[in-house]
Amino acid sequence: MPTKPKAKATVAPQRIVIMGMSGAGKSTLAAAVGERLGVPYYHLDNIYHLPGWVARPEDEVRREFTALAEQEKWVVDGNFFRLTGSFRQRADVLVFLDYPRWYCMAQVLLRFVRHHSGWQRRVDLAAGFEEKFSFSFLWWVWNWQSTNRPRWLAELENFRRKCVRLRSRKETARWLETL
């Protein structure tokens, strides 16, 4: 899987999937990519969940994801492995934010503090969603590299020609400049 950002693209991608561990900055990057390319951005958590973080029925979510993937232009971010195959198939570029565990844990904790102190609200969350502190979520983030990461890396090997693996904010910033 390519790991280095390439030279400036001759044709800007129109369908981009951004995935990675919670706290890696998927939503922030997706918004920046969407703005830079003039392409609509979709935070898949807002489609998957009802207000209050209640999961919607999987068949309903799959239908919405598939319909969205059929559109001509989009940037999506999320980690719904079983439900995002249609996005991976149609994407021009797959971006995997493969940041260190310590960094993602720190970002998740900082995000919680920012939100609850009133310092900074998450703009990617739809109405009815609140940033909540949860030990089970922290446990999930901590274990993501050993449980989910290997599955994502194996899946992304099937798309190696259109996949970019970014391991730091510096690499991510350089990649964004190529768009």
Descriptive account of the structure:
By secondary structure, this protein is of the alpha/beta class. The protein has one domain: P-loop containing nucleotide triphosphate hydrolases (Rossmann fold), CATH 3.40.50.300. The protein contains eight helices and seven strands; from the N terminus they run βαβαββαβαβαααβα. The strands form two sheets. Strands 2-5-1-6-7 form a five-stranded parallel beta sheet, with helices on both faces. A two-stranded antiparallel ribbon has the order 3-4. A hairpin with a 3-residue loop joins strand 3 and strand 4. Helix 5 packs antiparallel against helix 6. The two termini are 19 Å apart. The mean pLDDT is 85.
Q: Into which percentage range does the β-strand content fall?
A: 5-15%
Radius of gyration: 16 Å
In total, how many beta strands? 7
Distance between the termini: 19 Å
Number of helices in the DSSP assignment: 8
Let me know the largest β-sheet. Answer: 5 strands, parallel
Question: In the CATH hierarchy, what is the architecture at level 2?
Answer: 3-Layer(aba) Sandwich
Feature tags:
179 residues; 5-stranded parallel β-sheet; Rossmann fold; single chain; 8 helices; alpha/beta
Present the secondary structure layout.
Blueprint: E1 15-20, H1 26-37, E2 41-43, H2 44-48, E3 49-50, E4 54-55, H3 58-69, E5 74-77, H4 85-90, E6 93-97, H5 101-117, H6 135-147, H7 149-157, E7 163-166, H8 169-177
Parallel strand pairs: 1-5, 1-6, 2-5, 6-7
Antiparallel strand pairs: 3-4
Helix pairs in contact: 5-6
Summarize this structure briefly.
This protein has one domain: P-loop containing nucleotide triphosphate hydrolases (Rossmann fold, 3-Layer(aba) Sandwich).
